[in-house]
Amino acid sequence: MTTLSSKATCNSHGQDSSYFLGWQEYEKNPYDEAKNPNGIIQMGLAENQLSFDLLESWLAENPDAAAFKRNGESIFRELALFQDYHGLAAFKNAMVQFMAEIRGNKVSFDPNKLVLTAGATSANETLVFCLAEPGEAFLLPTPYYPGFDRDLKWRTGVEIVPIHCTSSNGYKITAPAIEAAYQLAQTRNLKVKGVLVTNPSNPLGITLTRRELDLLINFIDAKGIHLISDEIYSGTVFNSPSFVSIMEVLVNRNYVGTGLWNRVHIVYSLSKDLGLPGFRVGAIYSNDHLVVAAATKMSSFGLVSSQTQYLLSAMLSDSKFAKNYIVENQKRLQNRHAMLVNGLKTTGISCLESNAGLFCWVDMRHLLSSKTFEAEMDLWKKIVYQVGLNISPGSSCHCDEPGWFRVCFANMSEETLELAIRRIKSFVNTISSSKTSEGLSSSSTKNTRRKSLAKWVFRLSFNDRDRER
Ligand SMILES: Cc1ncc(COP(=O)(O)O)c(C=O)c1O
Fold it and tell me: Known catalysed reaction(s) (predicted)?
C-alpha cells in the first residue's frame, strides 16, 4: 500500500467537518422534483444560480466570445498557445473595471496590481504562502467560512487564531475581541502575521461597518501586520448599509503610499458575484509590488485558462451589460432572501438581520434539546436525514454558540425553496407537539418523540408524493 506524505494525510484540511459531510450526504440522495422528490435539498452550497439567464442572453448576442473569434476571425491558435502568467491585459482591465463598478466607482484599481488565480481558494492560499512562515498565524473573526481551514492552513502550515464574535452584539468585531485573539496567539507562541476578514461575511451575510473597518486598520497599524480582505461577496450586497471596501477606507483616511497601504490585500473572485465557480477565476489585489511579483510567480500553480480570460474580458468590458447585471442580480438576491426570511418567520425561526450574500444565518437555538454542540449535531442530523435539507451547522464555521445554521437560498428554484420551507415548518410543528406531549407525560418522553417523528416522516413523504401527482 502506498504510504502518503504527512502533508497529504494530515487532518488540517478539515474534510471531516460537517460542512463537507453534508455535501457527501446530499450527493448520495439528491433531491430532484421528478426523479427523487424525497431526496435531500442542497442548502449548504453558496452558489448563485439566479442570474444565469442574463449571462446566457449576453452569450447569445455575442457568439464570437465563446467561439474563439475576434471580429469574426478565429483566434484559436493565439489562445491555445498563450501561457504568460501575467494574464491577458484585456481581462485584467475588465476585472478591475468590474471591481470598481461593484464599489460604486468610489475607488479605482490598477491592473498592474492584480494577480489572477484559479478562484479565491487559490488567491487566499497564495497570499498566505507569500506573507507567512509555517507556524505563524492569522487572526480570523468567528464564525468563518469552513473552507479557510483548508485554504489557509493545510498546505501552508499556518495557524488560524479565532477572534471570538458573538450574537449578543450582532457579531460585531470589537477592539477587546481582536486584542484577546492577539494575546491568545502570544500564549500559544504563534507570531501573528495578519488578520483575515470576509466582507461581506460568509457565513453571516452582513457587511463590515466603517467602525469595524477603522478598528481593523488601527489594529494592523499598531501591530505592524497585514490585513487580507476577502471581498468575494462584494457584488451581492442587496440592502443598506451599502458595501464599503477596505480600499475605500484607506483612500479616505489618506493611507495611500504609506507602509500600511502596502500591507492591505484584497481577494476577489467571480464565483459568487457572477455565479461562475466552475470557471475558476479569482484574483489578489495588492499595493505591494513585492507581493504582486511573488504571487504572480506562485500563480503558475493555478492559472486561469486563456479561453476563460478571453470570454470574460469580452463580457465584463461590456460596461452596459456589467452595470445592468450587478443591479438585476442584487434585486433577485434580495427577493430570494426575503422569501427565506419570511418563510422561516412563519415557523417561528428568525435569522440574523442581513444585507448580503447567498445565505442566511439562522437561529435555531430554541430547537436544541440542550445548549451544547452535541445537541446542535443531533438537530443537524435530523434536519439532513429526516427533514431532507443539507444546511451547515454553526460549529462547522467555528461559531462559539450552539444552535446557529447557515442556510443557502440562491442555488435552487423558487419551488424548491418553497418545498424546503414547508419541510421545516412540518418538522417544527412536530417538535412543538412532541414538546407539549412531553410536558403532559415526562415518563413517555422518548416514545412520544419517536412516534411523532415517525408520523411526521410518513406525512412528509406522503405530501411530496401527493405534490408529484
Ligand atoms: C469567503 C470565501 N472565500 C473564498 C471562497 C472560495 O471561492 P472560489 O470558488 O473562488 O475558490 C469562498 C467560497 O465559498 C468563500 O465563501
Answer: S-adenosyl-L-methionine = 1-aminocyclopropane-1-carboxylate + S-methyl-5'-thioadenosine + H(+)
